[in-house]
Amino acid sequence: DERVDRMLALLPDDSFTRYYGDYMREVTDSPLAFHLVGALAALSATAPPDYGMWAGSKMVHASLFLLAVGRSGRERKTTATAKPREMLFHVNPFLLGPRPGSAAGLHESLTKRPKQALFYDEFGDFLAGTGDANTRLLKMTLNQAYDGNIEATTLAKKATKDGFQDHDRGEVRNVRLTICAACSLSYIETLVR
């Protein structure tokens, strides 16, 4: 927490991140670093849809994927990552998106609302599904969303009276996706081995 304290001290006294960290430190026993994750998720989720920066010749929108990693049951990572979700729900519940179960579900959700925040209590469950094709496709689609656009793809076969035809999904542009998740250190250790 000392290094995070020094970093927060560099911020203006009236900054949201500083207020958020100071407040959350008083209402929970989670480490300050995890509250910084929450503050950044809240800022990312509420930033204007057109906010971005130029990276070479491409405008990059402010997608932000954050992961609070710590030991199970000891470090209160889920407590810290649940607070910004709760706050955003009270400010504007439409900022929160459903946790996608498939690439098609993510695509459909972002087509309706290209700006949303996803919160995961235990992201290790998601990471553990690296073997199945559905999860791999979902992760690939999340990578595209992070870059700001999801390519048009043929995701499934659709039944018709004449048989099956490709079910195309169009491109989703200007995606602003915030992911804030807690993850047990044991999941990360398993994946690294």
What's a concise summary of this model?
This protein is of the alpha/beta class and 193 residues long. It is built from 8 helices and 7 strands; from the N terminus they run αααβββααβααβββα.
Strand order of the largest sheet: 3-7-4
Q: Can you write the helix and strand succession as a string? A: HHHEEEHHEHHEEEH
State the end-to-end CA separation: 28 Å
Helix content: 40-55%
Structure class: alpha/beta
Q: How much of the polypeptide forms β-strand, as a percent range?
A: 15-25%
Compute the CA-based radius of gyration: 18 Å
Taking all residues together, what is the mean pLDDT? 84
Tally of individual helices? 8
Would you identify the regions where 5 or more consecutive residues have pLDDT less than 50? none
Overall 3D form: globular
**Quick one: biggest sheet?**
3 strands, parallel
Per DSSP E runs of 2 or more residues, the count of β-strands stands at 7
Overview of the structural elements:
This protein has helices at about 1-10, 15-25, 30-45, 75-90, 105-110, 125-130, 135-145, 185-190, and strands at about 50-55, 60, 65-70, 115-120, 155-160, 165-170, 175-185. The protein is α/β, with parallel strands linked by helices and about 190 residues long. A three-stranded parallel sheet has the order 3-7-4. The protein has a two-stranded antiparallel ribbon with strand order 1-2. A two-stranded antiparallel ribbon has the order 5-6. The chain is globular and about 45 Å long. The model has no long low-confidence stretch (mean pLDDT about 85).
